[in-house]
Design goal:
By secondary structure, this protein is an alpha/beta fold. It has a single domain (2-91, 113-182), classed as 3-Layer(aba) Sandwich (Collagenase (Catalytic Domain)). It is 36% helix and 19% strand. Strands 1-2-3-5-4 form a five-stranded mixed sheet, sandwiched between helices. The chain is globular and about 50 Å long.
């Protein structure tokens, strides 16, 4: 694992064995930090990014989402959406984001970083989607695997920060922000 400090954030990146190295970890940390900043994430804070493969994502997708098969990215936020600024991409139907808000706020020690959550990306899926011309938000963008990986990291960070795409308005807002961040 490597830790990268970008602005007020620490991005902890772990690459599973035998996962392709499409981009340097420092570049992935910059992509994540850029998305955290745009989403108004509290700071200083940390975020975990795990680069894995389809087999692990399929297992996690079944366990945590109840879905069969691999997916390209899964996010595991630790803070409810209320900890982030309001925006059109915030899930409208989740009053507490599925979290039970504590009666009291936990105070961190001075200088400690709050951990925002973790993201796990299938680099294998990024490569496959890009090589098949099924990249981008619509699945119809022909670009390289590095660009697809940048998108998946950005997408995962936005989910950690309370963004969603279940409803048309949410999806339009989230996709527009992703395009702006990757532009």
């Amino acid at each position: 694992m490597s830790s990268h400090y970008v602005g007020p954030w620490r991005i902890d990146i772990e690459r599973r064995d035998d996962v392709a190295r499409l981009l340097p970890a420092v570049e992935l940390a910059r992509v994540a930090a850029f998305a955290l900043s745009a989403a108004g994430a509290p700071s200083p804070a940390s975020l975990g990014l795990i680069l894995s493969d389809d087999a692990e994502l399929a297992e996690l997708n079944a366990e945590h989402m109840g879905k069969t098969g691999a997916t390209d990215v899964l996010s595991f936020p630790l803070l409810p959406p209320e900890f982030y600024p309001d925006h059109e991409g915030k899930a409208a139907d989740l009053a507490t984001g599925g979290f039970a808000l504590p009666a009291e706020t936990f105070t961190l020690p001075p200088g400690a970083r709050e951990h925002l959550g973790d993201i796990i990306v299938s680099v294998e899926r990024a490569v496959d989607q890009a090589s098949a011309g099924r990249g981008g938000q619509t699945g119809a963008v022909a670009w390289d695997a590095r660009s697809e990986l940048r998108l998946l990291v950005t997408h995962g960070v936005l989910h950690v920060c309370g963004w969603d795409h279940a409803e048309p308005l949410e999806e339009a807002a989230m996709r527009a922000l992703e395009q702006r961040l990757l532009g």
